[in-house]
Every structure is written in structure tokens, then in C-alpha cells.
Amino acid sequence: MSIRLRLTLWYSALLTAVIALFGVVVWGVLALTLVSQIDQTLNKTAVQVLRVSAVVPINDLSIITLPQLELFEADGLYIEVLTADGVLNVASQNLGNFDRPLDSSSLNQKSATLRDVSVGGAHLRVLTQPITTNGKLLGYLQVAASLRDVDQAESVLVLVLVAVGALSVIASAGLISLTAGRALRPLDMVTEAALNITRADDLSQRVPFVGSHTDEMGRLVTAFNATLERLERLFNSQRRFLADVSHELRTPLTAIRGNVDLLRRMNPLPDNRESLDAIQIEVERMARLVGDLLMLAQAESGNLPLARSVVELDTLLLDVYRQARVLAGDKVAVVIGEEDQARASGDRDKLKQVLLNLVSNGIKYTPAGGRITLGLACVNGWARFTVADTGVGIPPEDLPHVFERFYRVDKSRTRAAGNGTAPGGAGLGLSIAKWIAQAHGGRLEVSSRLGAGSVFSLWLPLLATRPVSKPAPVPARPE
Ligand code: ADP
Questions:
Q1: What is the pLDDT of residues 186-209, one digit of tens each?
Q2: How far apart are CA 228 and CA 222, in angstroms?
Q3: Rounded Cα–Cα distance for residues 479 and 473 (Å)
Q4: Which residue has the higher pLDDT, 423 or 302?
Q5: Which of 108, 263, 351, 433 has the fewest Cβ atoms nearer than 10 Å?
Q6: CA-derived radius of gyration, the chain
Q7: How far apart are CA 123 and CA 78, in angstroms?
Q8: How far apart are CA 332 and CA 229, in angstroms?
Q9: What are the φ/ψ torsions at residue 128 (nearest 5 degrees)?
Q10: Kind and range of the H or E run holding 141
Q11: CA-closest residue to ligand 1 atom 8
């Protein structure tokens, strides 16, 4: 759940609780005030009725003389006088034929009682006042008032509170979501920038920020941008160092090569010839490494020029095939599998370099007697070169890393390969190949089974599709 949603939910829940509490308090105060007003009226009326009543004792009997109860009807009051047994004695006229006590459950109480009762569908507040003389219970006076107005006021209040409360919660949830979204946007920007940097491998990007640089977000963005700047400077100087060193190493290497050639031509002793061969092999290996390093440094700093011309991919495949056969010699067989006609825009030499690199890896990591199959297919607007071998394969845990710089699956295995027909590399070939593929708007993929072989696929966007011979499954788009 996002922070924004969490903030909105927490705030809305809190506001709902506050409004509900407020509503209950207001409702309680209103009900209490209205009911206590009614209670006052009931008490006052009971006092008045009893004040103007008279009790006349005749022998054992006590006769109560009551005032005219209709006088009190104007206030919307209902009055009943009951005997000590609870039998109706007199009632105000507005009670009509109703001849039961208004509140029978309070009849046995010794003091005045106030209760809410429902009588024939009417909600009433009833005061039951015992009538006594000289400590003797003569009967009960019950005075009642309708609670209809109080109930109505309470329902209206509940309705208003619910409506206003719901509206406030919705409005404030919208507002908090908007405000939180705005406040947290720089975080999204930082995330987006970090993802872009990873995706495009470009440290020159910065997080755009237009807010105050002194608040929390402003300081976060400033700190993040400062870190990026420092990292960029560090990487740039590392690249420059790499480029300078590899550039500087080329001259002495050329000099060594020249001198080895010179010594060879001077007919050295047979013992020295072996040493010269060893020097030559190591110099060649070093020259290749220096060349790869220089190329990678140039590629990463954007200084590697790429030609943009129409490349006949099928012709390129044949070209690579011919050269692969020479490279493979008798060690492994090289064959062509599927071959479509296709054209792409790009640098023919660099593309050839990628394919030859894949082929020479195939030869390097395939035991004698194995096979390398080259292929070219058109798949949904993409050209797919494949270089498949029946070699040692790559362990699954190493597969995601083989395109990283200086990554070698198993150093002993790579060196062992170096003792054969081709020297073991430094783990730069595939990272250069991947860069070239991406610079052409394509990508390089690998799938492999340990002990069974590997398939490297180079995907390139097609320039114009000529008749396609074999449809292939839809490929995922390159990043
Ligand atoms: P290197 O020059 O060391 O071969 P690469 O970048 O070309 O460097 O390859 C990186 C690693 O990937 C190699 O060390 C090797 O272990 C592995 N690898 C590359 N191609 C193959 C292949 N066809 N079969 C098995 N392993 C391979």
C-alpha cells in the first residue's frame, strides 16, 4: 500500500472517529437538555395539581378533590389519577377512552419516578407521583408529555451529523490525498530518476525539483543529486583513466611486437625462438585486452563512433560463417541453420565483431567434435541472429552475469580454454557485444544448459522486411 493511501486512510479514520465522538456528545447534550426541560414541566404540573387538590378524611376513607385537569391539556400534557391499587380514577380528556395507567411499572415506587414509555405507539415521558397523606398512600398522580418533538430533533440532528460528517470525511480524504500526493511527488521523481539511471546506465541525469530546498523533500532531492554528481565524476574519471591507460599501453605493445619481429628476422637460436613465441603469444593477448578495454571505455563515454548504413544481414551471416570455419579448423563443425533475408541499419564491422566474438566463444567452450550452428530469422519486425553450440554450457547462477565486465564463469575453465586453440579472455568480449547490440537499438540474450550447450541471440530491429521464410514466436521487446 502506498504511503499516500496509508496517510489518507489513517487521516480519514481519525476524522471519522472525532466526528463520531463529537456527534455522540452533541446528541447526548441535546437529548439531556430537551428531556430535562420536559421533566421540569412535568414536575411543575404535578406540584400545581397536588397544590390545588384537597384530601377530605371521612371515617376510614379519604376523598381527594382534584382541580379541573383539562386546564393542563393546553400544554400538551396527559394526566391520570389512579387509586393505590392502580385503578384509573380520573383522567384528562385528551386521553379519550384510554383507561390503563400511563406507566404501570412505576406504580409501586415510594417516591416520584420519571420514565420513558411507549403507549399505543406514542412515545411519552411519564412522571409518577405517589399521593400520600399522613404517611398513607392514597393513590398516584401520573403526568405525561409526548417525546415526539425530542425524537424528531434527535433524528434531524443525527441526519445532519451523518451527512456533514460523511461530506467532511470525503472532502478531507480528497484534500489529504492531493496534498500527500504533491508532497510525496519528489519521492516518485527520485525513484523514477534512479530507475532511469539504472535502465539507461546514465549517471548524468538529475532529479528535477521546483519546491523549497530547505524542507525535507528539498533536502532529500538536493542530497540525491549531489550523490549523483559525485558518482558521475567518479565514474567519468575512472573511464578516463581506463581510456588513457589502454591508449598509453598501445605504443609500448606495438614497440614490443616490432622488436619481437625484428629478433625473429635476425635468425635467433632455437632456444630463443621458443621464448620469442611465448612473448609473441602474451603480447597478442595483451594487445587484445588493451584493445577491448579502450573500446569499452570509448563506448561508455559515448566516443565510439558507429557507422549507420544499410547492412545485408544474410550476407553478413555468410561472411561470418566463412570466417568461423577458418577459426574452428578441425576442432568443431560450423553449420548454418535457418537463414532469412534481412536488412538492418548499423555498423557492419561492429556487428560482425559481435558475431565473431560469439562464434569464437562457441569454439573456445565447445569440446572437439562439437558443433556450432549459425542462424538468422525474421521475427515480428526483428532480425534474430543465433549462435548455438554444443559446448560446456553456462551454470544458471552465472547466466545473468556473463554480460558484465570482467565476468568469467570459471576462471580455471577459461584459462584451460586458453591452452587450446584460442587464448582465454578477460571477460570483456560479451560486455562489448552487449553494448554494440544496444547501440543498434537491439539486445543480446543467452540461454544455456550445463553440459548441453549455449545459444546466444542477437536481436536487431529490421530495416525493411523481405519475404519471411519461417515465422517465429513473438519476442519480448528490448529494454
Ligand atoms: P571471455 O573473453 O573470457 O570469453 P566473454 O565476455 O566473452 O569473456 O565471456 C564471459 C564468460 O562467459 C566467459 O568467461 C565464459 O565462461 C562464458 N561464456 C561465454 N560464451 C560461452 C559459451 N559459448 N559457452 C560457455 N560459456 C561461455
A1: 788 888 888 887 777 778 888 877
A2: 10
A3: 18
A4: 302
A5: 108
A6: 49
A7: 12
A8: 50
A9: -110, 115
A10: strand 136-146
A11: 427
Count CB atoms within 10 A of the CB of residue 190: 18
Distance 283 CA to ligand 1 centre (A): 21
Structural domains present in the chain: 3-56+63-153 (3.30.450.20), 216-301 (1.10.287.130), 309-461 (3.30.565.10)
Asked if residue 354 has its Cβ within 6 Å of ligand 1, the reply is no
* Residues 6+ away with beta carbon under 8 Å from 227: none
**Can you read off the three cell numbers belonging to residue 136?**
398513607
Q: What is the mean pLDDT of residues 161-190?
A: 89
Q: Check if 425 has its Cβ closer than 6 Å to any atom of ligand 1.
A: yes
What torsion do the CA atoms of 109, 111, 115, 119 make, to the nearest 10 degrees? 60
- CB of 391 within 6 A of ligand 1: the answer is yes
Relative to the CA of 456, which ligand 1 atom is closest?
A: 23
Distance CA 200, CA 413 (A): 33
Q: Which atom of ligand 1 is nearest to the CA of 428?
A: 6
As a whole number of angstroms, the distance between CA 327 and CA 463 comes to 30
- Residue pair 300/239 in contact by the 8 Å Cβ criterion: yes
Question: Which tens digit of pLDDT belongs to each residue from 320-337?
Answer: 999 999 999 999 999 999
Instruction: Collect all residues with Cβ–Cβ distance below 8 Å to 146 and sequence separation of at least 6.
Output: 76, 122, 123, 124, 125
Q: Which among 329, 451, 436 has a CA at the least distance from the CA of 389?
A: 451
What CA–CA distance (Å, rounded) separates 143 from 124? 10
For residue 184, what pLDDT is reported?
83
* 327, three cell numbers: 577459426
Q: Which residue's CA is the nearest one to ligand 1's atom 4?
A: 425
Q: For residues 468 and 378, is the Cβ–Cβ distance under 8 A? A: yes
Residues paired with 336 in a beta bridge: 374
Grid cell listed for 324: 568461423
Q: How far apart are CA 112 and CA 172, in angstroms?
A: 50
- Asked whether 466 and 341 are in contact (CB, 8 A), the reply is yes
- pLDDT in the model for residue 418: 46
Ligand 1: does its nearest atom lie under 6 Å from the Cβ of 402? yes
Choice from 331, 374, 402 to test ligand 1 binding pocket (greatest atom count within 8 A of CB): 402
Angle CA 185–189–191, to nearest 5: 115
pLDDT digits (tens, 9 = 90+) for 375-432: 999 998 899 999 999 999 999 999 999 998 888 887 555 544 544 444 456 788 899 9
